[in-house]
Amino acid sequence: MKIIMLGAPGAGKGTQAQMIADKYGIPHVSTGDIFRANIKEGTALGMEAKEYMDQGLLVPDELTVRILLDRVAREDCGDGYVLDGFPRTIPQANVLDEALEKLGDKIDYAIDVDVPDDNIVRRMSGRRACLACGATFHIENVPPKKEGICDRCGTELVLRDDDREETVQKRLDVYHEQTQPLIEFYRSKGILEVVDGMKPMQEVFADITAILGTAAE
Ligand code: AMP
Known about the structure:
Blueprint: E1 2-6, H1 13-24, E2 28-30, H2 31-41, H3 44-53, H4 61-72, E3 81-84, H5 90-102, E4 109-114, H6 117-125, E5 127-129, E6 136-138, H7 165-179, H8 181-188, E7 192-196, H9 201-216
Parallel strand pairs: 1-3, 1-4, 2-3, 4-7
Antiparallel strand pairs: 5-6
Helix pairs in contact: 1-9, 2-3, 4-5, 6-7
C-alpha cells in the first residue's frame, strides 16, 4: 500500500504518517527528516537543503526528487510506504507518478489532513522535535512523557528553526501557492481522501484507518 499524506505544515500529517507506518508495518518516508539527517551529518546535500529550509522555502525539485526516488527504491519499501512531505509541488507529483508507472505501480491513497490556517501557527510553535530519531511531539497535544526529552530515544527535544513563527508564516504562503494544488491533482485521479485534522489525534487516526482498513487487512 502506497500512501501520500497531504496537508499544511503543522496539520499533524507527520504524526499520522508515523501511526500509519506502525500499524501497517510500512516505512514512514519523510523528505524533511532525510534533509535534517543530512544537515546533522554535514553532507553536501544537507548544506544545500538547509539554505532553503531556514528561509521557509522549498528545496529545489531536482534535489528533492532524487533523494525521494532513491529512498523508495530500497528494499524495505517493497510492500509500500507512507510519504510525509512529498510531493510538495505538481512537478514532484508528476515525477513520482512516472517513476511508479514504469514499475507498473501507483499511489493508492492521498490523504489530506485538513486544518484551517489560523490554527497552524499556534500548533507549530508548540511543536518539539527530536533531531536524533525524527519523532515529533507537541507541548499541549502530544507531550513527551518527560518534559523536553524524546520518548523514543531519550534525546533532548528542540523547537526546529523552521517551526519559528516568522518561518511558519512563510511556509504557509509557500504551501498555498505550491502544495495545495496537489489536492485537486489527486482528487482528479480519484484517490483523494480528506480527514478533519481539527479532531483529536486518535480520532483523526481512526478516520484514516477506516479509509485504509479493508485495503490493508
Ligand atoms: P517537513 O519536515 O516536511 O515540514 O519539511 C521541512 C522542510 O524541508 C520544508 O519546509 C522544505 O524546506 C523541505 N522539504 C521537505 N520536503 C520537501 C519537498 N518534498 N520538496 C521541497 N522541499 C521539501
